[in-house]
Amino acid sequence: MLYQLIRLLAVPVVKLIYRPEVRGVDRVPAYGPVILAPNHRAAVDTTLLALVSPRRVRFLGKAEYFTGKGLKGRLMAAFLDAVGFVPVERGNAKAGLAALESGRKVLDEGGVFGIYPEGTRSLDGRLHRGHTGVGSLALATGAKVVPVAMTGTEKLLPNGKLFPRFAKVTVEFGEPLDFSRYDGLDASPAIRRAVTDEVMYAIAELSGQEYVDKYHKRPGEAA
Fold this sequence. Notes:
By secondary structure, the protein is of the alpha/beta class. Helix content is 38%, strand content 17%. The chain has 7 helices and 9 strands; from the N terminus they run αββαβαβαββαβαβαβ. It has helices at 2-17, 45-52, 70-83, 95-108, 133-141, 153-156, 189-207, and strands spanning 21-23, 34-38, 57-62, 85-88, 112-114, 127-128, 144-151, 170-173, 211-212. The relative contact order is 0.20.
């Protein structure tokens, strides 16, 4: 109910003020497990995608955001759950496996899971090599993967800024990718890589970004 209320209030405001152009929304399968795999340019990407998607999207969120004390903490946890965040522990050796398990649970229940294959925001505007988590989830669950291109969000909310600006923003959903031809091969690293690369090439086609076949460094990582 809270999710529906947030959409009811927020979607008209976003459309009225920021007027995002949304294309291909009918390409998102109406039923069954679906992975939305967008490029990642700004912190606002997750919220925007959740608002324009025709189905509720679940994303990963830091578990500590859900454990605040008092009324404020409970309200924050309820809000994050309503807008689609799934709590997952980070900062330990099992974090990657926990993230994939959380995503798999959403998909096994027939839901929609959003994952950024690059693993972090692109700070140079290019599309970087995808991590194979998206391939692992697609192969393990049979979910279709819908590539998504988000353009202009880095101008809507530039890195380091707290409040959105006015900018032309486009969200385009691509044709769903079906990887059922690889049934039974989800344990193969080569197949997981092939699936991930196909997803990344589809995102590149939609976004028009230059593709770089190397992982993007996270802020603070050594070059």
